[in-house]
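Support request from a user on the community tier.

User writes: "When I paste my structure tokens into the form, the page sometimes reloads and wipes my input. The last time it worked, I copied everything first. Here is what I submitted, just in case something in the input itself triggers the reload:"
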């Protein structure tokens, strides 16, 4: 008699178990808020990193429109990064200190997100006169750059330096993008699909690279909402 009762109760027990699991998951979700990355405006960043012309801006900051030339001689603009999450950095091919480490780390990021078309990378040469298209092409081949995924770019020095200082807040030093001006930074900048800055990372630090991978995944998840 008890065995028959138990057999009859199995469906009820299964339903109760499923219901309990759903309730536990719902309560856990409510008590564990979804992690969201901050949106950085000029006023949120170390003033030394922000050009004085934009330091007062407290909201709605976006990366400015840009026009660059990549390793294949193609014109690259913000339209190529429309609805993309991307990581930006600043380097030069003759750099023998931090740049090789940074480039190798972007290579690792490229490998992690190789099959995700929503994730891209954008490297800006800070010595654009030296880093011609042919130089960048050779560098890209050497570093395993995937065309269409990672653009290594040259262009107007003044334009690139203005992007670094007024859009990405990538450097500490001031300057005008002139002949004697030079920037050198290890910063990686995470940009979302709305061209908003969502994080800053040390491109030479392995722990920061892992943090960047985590943050990209968080941004991916939040972008689906």
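"...and here is what came back when it finally went through:"
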């Amino acid at each position: 008699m008890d065995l028959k009762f138990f057999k009859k109760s199995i469906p009820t027990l299964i339903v109760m178990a499923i219901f309990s699991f759903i309730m536990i998951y719902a309560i856990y979700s409510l008590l564990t808020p979804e992690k969201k990355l901050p949106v950085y405006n000029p006023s949120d960043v170390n003033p030394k990193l922000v050009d004085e012309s934009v330091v007062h801006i407290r909201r709605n900051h976006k990366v400015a429109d840009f026009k660059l030339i990549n390793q294949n001689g193609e014109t690259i603009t913000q339209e190529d990064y429309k609805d993309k999450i991307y990581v930006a950095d600043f380097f030069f091919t003759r750099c023998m200190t931090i740049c090789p480490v940074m480039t190798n780390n972007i290579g690792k990021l490229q490998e992690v997100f190789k099959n995700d078309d929503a994730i891209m990378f954008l490297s800006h040469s800070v010595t654009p006169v030296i880093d011609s298209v042919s130089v960048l092409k050779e560098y890209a081949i050497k570093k395993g750059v995937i065309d269409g995924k990672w653009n290594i770019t040259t262009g107007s020095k003044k334009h690139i330096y203005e992007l670094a200082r007024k859009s990405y807040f990538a450097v500490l030093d001031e300057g005008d993008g002139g002949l004697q001006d030079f920037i050198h930074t290890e910063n990686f900048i995470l940009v979302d699909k709305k061209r908003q800055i969502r994080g800053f990372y040390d491109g030479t630090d392995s722990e920061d690279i892992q943090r960047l991978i985590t943050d990209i995944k968080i941004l991916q998840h939040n972008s689906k909402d």
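Agent notes: The reload is a front-end session timeout and is unrelated to the input. The longest strand covers residues 85-91. The chain has a mean pLDDT of 87. Escalated to web team.
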